[in-house]
Every structure is written in structure tokens, then in C-alpha cells.
Amino acid sequence: MMIIIKNAIRERMRKKEIYVFAALGILLLLLFGGGSTTLQINGVPVTDFSNMFGIMHGMVTVIGCLLALLISLQTIPNEYERRTSHLVWVRGISQTSYHTSLALANFLSGVIAVGILYMALAVYVIGNGETGVLIRMIPAFLILCINIGIISLLTSVLSIKLPAAVSGLIGAIVVIGGLLYGILDTYRSIMGGFTGSLLGMALRVLPDFNQIRAQSAAICKGGSIEWHGILAGLLTIYILSIGLVCLKRKEA
Amino acid sequence: MVTVENLTKSYHKKTVVSAISFTVKKGEVFALLGSNGAGKSTTIKMILGLVKPDAGDIMVKEGKVIGYSPETPFFPVFLTGMEVLEYYGSLQKMKKEVIMETAPRLLEQVGLEKDRTKIKHYSKGMLQRLALAQALLGEPDILILDEPCAGLDAMGRLEMLEIIRKLKEAGKTTIMNTHILSDIEKVCDKGVIMKKGKILRDFRMIDFQKDGALEGVSLEELFLKTVAV
């Protein structure tokens, strides 16, 4: 299993796709971080570290989730399209083991990409002399990895059966919905009626990425965290892992 | 070594392999001969366990290791030939030191160099050779080669056939799928002619070598006569 994971990550490293995506993310971060004096929310300039860090942490979450989606999208379909799966199957590697290895490689690649973004955030923190936050960023990063895990696993599981474009589309809807979970929940309570209940049903299956992001940000700020959101995220990962074991392709 | 009995496979109600049977003995080079769509590749995939047969049996002598070289080999383009062998060797649980000892020898055997050339710079012929090298990892008893000369130029084909001939001399049992008659004439011992998923007839190369006479025809004529039915 380890060799498949290592090879899949090595492919991304050598193709430099992780670095390209992460570099684009850092560029976006710098655009916001560097131009802090002009950034305003409701007409009020947002200049202090606390506000800026919150915004940038949120951006890392959004970019990180999208990166995880992009990285995971093609891995499994590519293996079957290129028929590299044939040479793995004939060596007695089971589909479950093969898919699990590729999904883990997707997750670890996503973690590396987000890790690079997080380092850019760390540079910003050091630049502002907030070294206390730096230590707290480590557990915060681990919490954020739950989001990465959910997206990597979801996209990997879907791509066992569906074409990359379809699983990408579903993944994108889940990412956007999950990040806007709080807003959608508020909207649901305002709406009521058929639309409200429809939205309520959708929210039941959507992972609450926003909740996990909020817990990660809370750790950075030294605040208390709500374990409910984190546990729900871990449960989602567990359920998706079952899909990884159960879903199989008919033939290589 | 390998016995196939009444093997059948259908896709979407279309039968692509229909109740075929054949036996391959130790040390033989066996040819599955037929035009495109004859069912050769599906047969090979069923023997390898990549495709599940609808009916029939495949019996491979117990404990025998199979090596497989695909028709259109694809290897991660960022790897070198050596790294590819390391990767597939590890997948079949070969020890690192065994791989490091075996891989350079295999590369040399198929006419490739142990250098830093990435797969993306490999020609079609080099890829076919590398595919054969990875099939030879772990000293397989049976080799299954799916169109081993596909896409190769004249020189490349001759070199590939020479490698197969040497493997035969080394006692390897080979099942080879091809539609090139001259390739069969050069290396095969026997085979079957397939069309639309059925075996139309079997042949032994030795029969052509006796005054060139099996029903008074060459393999080419026999093939044309058979598939024209």
C-alpha cells in the first residue's frame, strides 16, 4: 500500500502540480495580506492582525478545500484510463487496497498543498511578531485537515464509479455548500416551507466545513472549541471510508 | 501449464468470446491469432483475472507465476525505467536488494540502459521493452504478451522477437496475442485462429515446416482461408 501512496505523491511532486496550485494560493494570500490598509468590511478598514488573520485563515480554508478537490479529481479515473490498474491488479493487489492507497495519496497531497499555504500564513504571523499564534497554528492545521480529508475521500469515492467531471461537479457543490453551511442554515430558518425543508434535507447530508474552519480559527485565537463539529467531520470521514471499501469497479 | 475450457464472455448481450478451449504446455510459445475484435485481448484479460468470465474454466498450474506485458503500456512519465521496475517489483513484494540486483539485468536483457532517462522521453519501442522487463520481474513461469510488437518499426520488431525467442530458450511458457503472421512464424510453436470470439481452428508451426505443408498452404494462406469462412 505504501508504495502506491508514495508513487502517487511522487507523481504530483514531479509534475509540480501541488506547487503550482499552492503558489497560486500564496499569491492570493499575499494580495490580501499585502494590501491590508485598503481592505474594508462594511466601510470599516480592517487593518489589525486579529481581523486580518481571521480573513486569511478563512482564505486558506477555501483555497485548501478547492486544492484538495482539484488534486483528488483525476487520480483514480486516470489509473483506469491509462490502464496502469492492469499492472497493479495482476500483481494480486485488491481493488480496495488500491483505491484506499490512491485516496490516501490524494489526502496527503492535499495536506502538503494546504501545508504550503499554511506556511505562507505562518510567515505573515511571524512578520506581525505574533509568535504565540504560531504554536497554536499546529493543532489548528490538524483540525483543518479534517476538511481536506472529507473532500479528498469524497472525490476519490465518487471517482471510483463516476467520470472525473461528474465527481468534480458534485465535489464542487459539496465544497461550496459546506463552506457556506452557516449562511445556508440561516437562510433555511428564514425561508421555511418547501424551499426551507428542501434546504434542510440538503444540509443534513452536507459536511459542515465552515464549522470545522471555525474551530481551527478558534484554536489559533486561543479560544475554546466545540467538539461537535470536529466529531461530525471525523464521522463523515469514517462513512466515506466505508464507501471506499464497498465501491468497486467491475473490471480493470 | 495453462488450460482454458469453454471460456465465454459477453458485453451488453454481445458475445465477445464464445466457448473457447485450448492448452498451453510448458516451454511453448502459444499464439492467439486473429483480426481486431476477434476476442484475443479479452481472452488474455480473463486468463489474467482482469475480466471475469461468464462461463468456462481457466486452469493455471499451481504455484506458477504469471508475468504480463500490456498492448499499450503506460508507465508514470516522471519515472525512469529503473524506477518503474522498482515500483512494480515492490508491488509484487520483492525484496529491495533483489529488485536492485534484478532490475538492471532485466533492463539489459530487453536492450534498455539503466540511466536517468525519464519515461516521457521513451520511444514506443522502448516502452514495449520496458513493459516486457516489468513482466519478467520475479522470474515468472508464464508470460502473457498482448501484442508485444504493436507500433514497433521493423528493427524494433525483430529485436523484440529475438528477446521472446531467447526467453523461449530459457524455458518460459508464453501466450502471445498478435495479428502479425510473420511474428508467429518466427517465434511460436502453436496457436489458434480466432474470429468474432470463436476459435476457428488450431495450428502447429511444426506442420508448416514439413515441406511447408499443412493442407498444402502457408500460415498466411491458412489464416486467410480460415477467416474467410
Shape of chain B: globular
Name the helix and strand elements of chain A from N-terminus to C-terminus, one letter apiece: HHEEHHHHHHHHHH
Largest sheet of chain B: 6 strands, mixed
What is the spatial order of strands in the main beta sheet of chain B? 5-6-7-3-8-9
Helix segment tally of chain B: 8
Order of the strands making up the biggest sheet of chain A: 1-2
Mean pLDDT of chain B: 88
Head-to-tail CA distance between termini of chain B = 31 Å
3D architecture notes:
The complex is a heterodimer of chains A (252) and B (229). Chain A has one domain (2-246). Chain A contains twelve helices and two strands; from the N terminus they run ααββαααααααααα. Chain A has helices spanning 2-15, 17-34, 49-73, 75-81, 84-89, 95-127, 131-161, 164-179, 181-191, 193-205, 209-221, 227-246; strands at 40-41, 44-45. Chain A has a two-stranded antiparallel sheet with strand order 1-2. In chain A, a hairpin with a 2-residue loop joins strand 1 and strand 2. In chain A, 42% of the residues are buried. The mean pLDDT of chain A is 86. Chain B is of the alpha/beta class. Chain B has helices at 40-48, 81-91, 96-109, 124-135, 154-169, 181-187, 205-209, 219-227, and strands at residues 2-11, 14-24, 29-34, 55-60, 66-69, 142-146, 173-178, 190-195, 198-204. In chain B, strand 8 and strand 9 form a beta hairpin. Chain B is globular, with a radius of gyration of 18 Å. The relative contact order of chain B is 0.19. At the A-B interface, helix 1 and helix 5 of A face helix 2 of B.
